[in-house]
Design a protein that fits this description.
The protein is mostly helical. The chain has 13 helices and 5 strands. It has 2 domains: 215 residues, Rossmann fold (3-Layer(aba) Sandwich), CATH 3.40.50; 92 residues, Tyrosyl-Transfer RNA Synthetase (Orthogonal Bundle). 53% of the residues lie in helices and 6% in strands. The radius of gyration is 21 Å and the shape is globular. Bound molecules: adenosine-5'-tetraphosphate. The site of adenosine-5'-tetraphosphate has 19 residues, from helix 1.
Length: 342
């Protein structure tokens, strides 16, 4: 039985334009949680995670504001949720180092995302890319967050966060010092796939822009990307079972279901038997109607970068005030008397 107050933490990396995958897999869920009054909510732009791969400094600053703008444009209200960027709150880096000393090499060696991101060039990947999940654990546990809305791809990292929390609690004889946070995953939108290859996840750092819908894409570009999305020659089935072995069809139907907030079965009940020539325009209209207003709102917000910076600065102050007592206790627990920036 946890004694911790319900608190949500989640974040996104400013590594490029946010995609429909980020939106449906995570952001929609962030916004929905705003209606759950029992939770305190922190949503972070995780800029320290972004530098695990090289980022051009001016681009990073701009991308950080863009993610913040996407949060607000999607419906996050800075008065109801704490919005900030990670590097403004030193607790993340401080606790991240401590967790690097708690986590085991064997645990990190099992992380599939490192293998995917480092690819064949593992020897040349940054140490930060390898130890990324320990910083993610710090992001969450610095606030003793109990719930983490994420896409399916982050589930393994969240399990590692739980392992780190458990080991810390055991090693230092502080049962229940850190909560074991739970993932909040929406099964229908857990994994949005690339428009060019239904086996790969839609990703903001995919070299092909045609593989993804960016939240900043205009109506024509969205329609063009959907028109050119890879498909197979068969018509849509009338039942979800008929999508087995058809990853591209499954992805497009899944996107339609998520955007129209109905089940895959309902989409197929209406569109089953249709070829993609008929289905794609309907999907394009729906995607434009959902995404284009967010892009427009982002553009308006980005015209006033100082206002975005001031929202992030205010959020960082509120976040730091929550993390400070937790870090104080962590330092004392470790015998690092007087340690820490707080
Ligand atoms: N394709 C996706 N389907 C569902 N959810 C997704 N998420 C990302 N892509 C999809 C969710 O978005 C949140 C933020 O992700 P992130 O910015 O921390 O980085 P990521 O998971 O590595 O996302 P990308 O787009 O693939 O970024 P890059 O290309 O920089 O690595 C997470 O909750 C994630 O699950």
């Amino acid at each position: 039985m946890t004694t911790h107050a319900p608190r949500v933490f989640s974040g996104m990396q400013p590594t490029g334009n946010l995609t429909l995958g980020n939106y449906l897999g995570a952001l929609v869920n962030f916004v929905a949680l705003q209606e759950r009054e029992e939770f305190e909510r922190l949503y972070c732009v995780v800029d320290l995670h972004a530098i695990t791969t090289f980022q051009e400094p001016a681009t990073l600053t701009q991308a950080t504001r863009e993610v913040a703008a996407a949060y607000i444009a999607s419906g996050l209200d800075p008065d109801r949720s704490i919005l900030f960027n990670q590097s403004r709150v030193s607790a993340h880096a401080e606790l991240g180092w401590i967790f690097t000393c708690v986590a085991r090499m064997g645990w990190l060696n099992r992380m599939t995302q490192f293998k995917e991101k480092a690819g064949k060039n593992r020897e040349n990947a940054s140490v930060g890319l390898f130890s990324y999940p320990t910083l993610m654990a710090a992001d969450i546990l610095a606030y003793r967050a109990t719930h983490v809305p994420v896409g399916e791809d982050q589930k393994q990292h969240l399990e590692l966060t739980r392992d780190i929390a458990q080991k810390f609690n055991n090693d230092f004889g502080r049962p229940d010092f850190f909560p074991l946070p739970e993932p909040l995953i929406q099964p229908e939108t857990a994994r949005i796939m690339s428009l060019r290859n239904g086996e790969n996840k839609m990703s903001k750092s995919d070299p092909s822009d045609m593989s993804r819908i960016n939240l900043t894409d205009g109506a024509d570009l969205i329609a063009q990307k959907i028109r050119k999305a890879k498909t197979d020659p068969e018509p849509l089935p009338s039942e979800p079972e008929g999508l087995a072995g058809r990853p591209e069809a499954q992805n497009l139907v899944g996107i339609f279901a998520a955007l129209s907030k109905v089940s895959v079965a309902d989409v197929l009940a209406e569109h089953g038997g249709q070829g993609f020539g008929a289905f794609k325009p309907a999907l394009a209209d729906l995607t434009v109607a959902s995404v284009a207003p967010i892009g427009e709102a982002m553009r308006r917000l980005l015209e006033a970068p100082d206002e975005i910076d001031s929202i992030l600065a205010d959020g960082a102050e509120r976040a730091a005030a929550l993390a400070r007592p937790v870090l104080r206790e962590v330092y004392d627990t470790l015998g690092l008397t007087g340690g820490g920036s707080a």
